[in-house]
Amino acid sequence: MDMIQSEELIFEYEKRDEEGNVIGMNRAIDGVDIHVSPGEFVAILGHNGSGKSTLAKHMNAILVPTGGTMWVNGRDTKEPAELWNVRQSAGMVFQNPDNQIIGTVVEEDVGFGPENLGVPTDEIWKRVEDSLKAVGMLEYRSNSPNKLSGGQKQRVAIAGVIAMEPQCIVLDEPTAMLDPNGRKEVIRTIQELRKKKQVTVILITHYMEEVIDADKVYVMDSGHVVMHGTPKEIFSQVDLLKKYRLDVPQVTMLAEELRKKGLDLPKGILRTQELVEALCQLS
Amino acid sequence: MSIKLEHINYIYSPGTAYEKQALKDISLEIKQGEFVGIIGHTGSGKSTLIQHFNGLMKATSGALYYDGKNIYETGYNMKELRSQVGLVFQYPEHQLFEVDVISDVCFGPKNQGLSQEECEKRAKEALELVGFPEKYYKQSPFELSGGQKRRAAIAGVLAMRPKVLVLDEPTAGLDPRGRDEILDQIEYLHKNTNMTVILVSHSMEDIARYVDRIIVMNHGEKMFDDVPKAVFAHYRELEKVGLAAPQVTYIMHALKAHGMDVHTDATTVEEAAEEIMRSFHD
């Protein structure tokens, strides 16, 4: 069974004028089919307004489809009775670290989720400790969240999600507001989590370097999935990506420039190591 | 015309338990027409520094000269300074508030006391400079896409015709094309109007591509102040303070370590490609 599966997913909302009258419909998602297997790392790319965040919000039933179906862990998100099962299967991390932390002490914040799920107190403390350890923030457990850096806050937000023990984590541009160090911290944390806990990860991002380790990449444009494949397959198509307002990692760009200048390099080079080896073979 | 800082210190909440020195003995001069990048990790003092440039924050000690005049002297015209040194904050679109785009952009010049006619003339000119499409002038700023909102907000500062434009992370949250478009537009402005541009960014790749000079901030101190190639040559030290060099610089170092005869100072894809081709042709 897929961890996340959508079939002909459509999401429409009403457009209103200043007086609040409906003046038409907007289709933010238009017939999207995606499949994410348990344990997979899937990235979703797309320009601002392409529908990727709207799609992400369907993965834990913040939004429900107006057409087609979204299943999370086999449960139809349209069924009101499944709401809590869906939300327990898929946890969400958002862009702004300051908007998703509510506790006045780090460990309280992380314990908030499991407490709401009705987890017994002893078990909550165990989960808090375990989650903070998993994101490398255990030593800050008694700190006030507002003294943390952006990257640290995002790691606490991730711990808060992990503490609910979801099978799947959806991260909607978790690094957009962070400095390079914070970005590295968060990406490293996500990779560690995959190793330690085998969680399924869905990462939405504008940073191309962050998706080179993904198992699968979906590219969205005006509500449709317009490309999907492995990072290598996707980043081999530099011109097509540019058409969708996206980019490729700098190392891929450099390899592409060198190809244009006549060097016989393979397409879709994603890592510095690959490029160095390919160039050394040529010289 | 220049901004000149002499031994600027800034201390937050002096005399309390939260006392923190955010700027330590900063001296620097930015001349008219320069394109300067400021980098530093979160909390390094970048934002505090740029808010000194137009007098929004006042140094605890030290002097700041704009156009040769000490702005801390009594009677200095701060209002004039603030229309000459325009500051675009992070996520400036959060500050949009008017009923339509053109009124929003007019707000700055209106406060400068200009006539309605002149305000609109400047607003249109500013919107054109940032490449904002005319068909949306009368639209509510809240109905625009992220990239268009950002342009409208930057136009709001440009409409005051500043001589210096300071931008704090102008591309945060934008998609790659949106990033390139905004920065290309700013570069165009810089080249064609001799405007000084001061760009704060977390993207080393963007900084390397656009600026002529980089100021590196660390714990409130100026760590480096030099041309990009010279600054990024210190990539090991930059890493220690939470920064990095552009990805291509690392590629060049890796190639050299593998015995290829290349110079390692490339900081952009174009430079790196040229340097690698040169080594193949030699």
Précis, in short:
By secondary structure, chain A is α/β, with parallel strands linked by helices. Chain A has helices spanning 52-58, 83-89, 106-116, 121-134, 150-162, 180-197, 231-235, 238-243, 250-260, 272-282; strands at 4-16, 22-36, 41-46, 67-72, 75-76, 90-93, 168-172, 200-204, 216-221, 224-229. Chain A has ten helices and ten strands.
Low-confidence stretches of chain A: none
Question: Regions of chain B with pLDDT < 50 over 5+ consecutive residues?
Answer: none
Going by CATH, the architecture of chain A would be 3-Layer(aba) Sandwich
Q: Helices and strands of chain B: which structural class?
A: alpha/beta
CATH T-level topology of chain A: Rossmann fold
Head-to-tail CA distance between termini of chain B: 46 Å
* Averaged pLDDT of chain A: 92
Q: Give the largest chain-chain interface (CB within 8 Å).
A: A-B, 41 and 38 residues
Report on this structure.
Chain A has helices spanning 52-58, 83-89, 106-116, 121-134, 150-162, 180-197, 231-235, 238-243, 250-260, 272-282; strands at 4-16, 22-36, 41-46, 67-72, 75-76, 90-93, 168-172, 200-204, 216-221, 224-229. Chain A has 283 residues and is α/β, with parallel strands linked by helices. Chain A has a single domain, classed as Rossmann fold (3-Layer(aba) Sandwich), CATH 3.40.50. In chain A, helix 6 (180-197) links the parallel strand 7 and strand 8 (200-204). The N and C termini of chain A lie far apart (48 Å). With 282 residues, chain B is of the alpha/beta class. Chain B contains 11 helices and 10 strands. Chain B has helices at residues 46-53, 78-84, 101-111, 116-129, 146-158, 176-193, 204-210, 228-232, 235-240, 247-257, 269-281; strands at 2-12, 20-31, 35-39, 61-66, 69-70, 85-88, 164-168, 196-200, 213-218, 221-226. In chain B, strands 6-7-8-3-9-10 form a 6-stranded mixed sheet, sandwiched between helices. The chains are: A alpha/beta (283), B alpha/beta (282). At the A-B interface, helix 6, helix 9 and helix 10 of A face helix 6, helix 10 and helix 11 of B.
